[in-house]
Amino acid sequence: MENTKRVPFFIPVAAIVIFALMFVYAAFFDHSFPEKAVKGFYQSYFSQDYQGAAEHISTLLTAKLVPEYATGEVTDHEAITAALAGALQDAAGNAPSTDGLKITILKKGIVKGTLSALVAFSISDESEEAGSTAVALLVKEGSGYKLVDAGAIDPSYVDRIGTADMSYWDEYFEQ
Asked: Considering the chain, what is the average pLDDT of its residues?
């Protein structure tokens, strides 16, 4: 008699179950984080990586910053991103220096809707503990969030942002 070892039955079954669970997670669970888009934009901008910063901007904001995109004259993604990076670089040329600035995401000030999100953050100098507080509005485009607008806020509003009802923005971006 030959002494053959067989693979236990549970090993192929376990492999199939694990692959099925991985598929379900990838297909049905939202693993996009709006705070990563905000942090990515500002870190790229502060390090003068305008191409990287442009990757985090929504098509809505791009239409404002690159008029050719709004009219449909330019449809190539790389050309649009390059034009947007140029617009960011031009704007940075007139702005105060960003050397030594850092961004801190304020966890209490994050709220996600179906298509939109608000993210509170602060920008400070390396020597400051607390800096300017702001909030960013983001829209879900493709598999991630993109920056639509950002503006300064009073720091006392951060807690309210975390509990905001995003239905208005979700309906707005759905149109």
From this structure: 82
